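Sample intake sheet
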Amino acid sequence: MTQHSESPPVFPTKFVWNSQVPFKVKSFVWLVAHKKLNTNDLLQLRRPHKALSPNICKLCMKHGETVDHLFLHCSLTKGLWHRLFQLAKMDWVSPRSISDMFFTNFNGFGSSKRGVVLWQDACIALMWVVWRERNARIFEDKARNSGCLWDSIRFLASLWAFCSKVFKGIPLNMLQLDWLAVCK
């Protein structure tokens, strides 16, 4: 009798490296996907005597900070994901882990090239904005509300998509105003 071992699925590298975002953002998403980002839980494992204390999420101030919590389960982040999925006319059910998120094929803005590019950019922008907000709260003692964060996500995703070939000829202001219309 032979045993079949299920190997873990191969990470969707194209999602990260073929995206139309700056290289440092691609590198950041790669770290998120592989759970190598310096969140409080990892910092405490690496340097327990010098770790940030307490290990608490600076966005919700309720739970310990892990990659999964920060980018999926934090109440602030959940609200942003919900808003993105609502815009795409989809229901948001938080995946168990960030790995599950990357392996789920969402066609948020449709399967057209524009829809795929903009959805990819919007998901990446959401993670990038959450990370930058987390850092602003820790290192600069500055906090923005979810409305401001959403505006930043819309702007970055629109800007990155605007720079791609598939959105050539679409004015940036048009792209920012109506994602669904430009993805048809």
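Comment: The radius of gyration is 17 Å. The mean pLDDT is 87.
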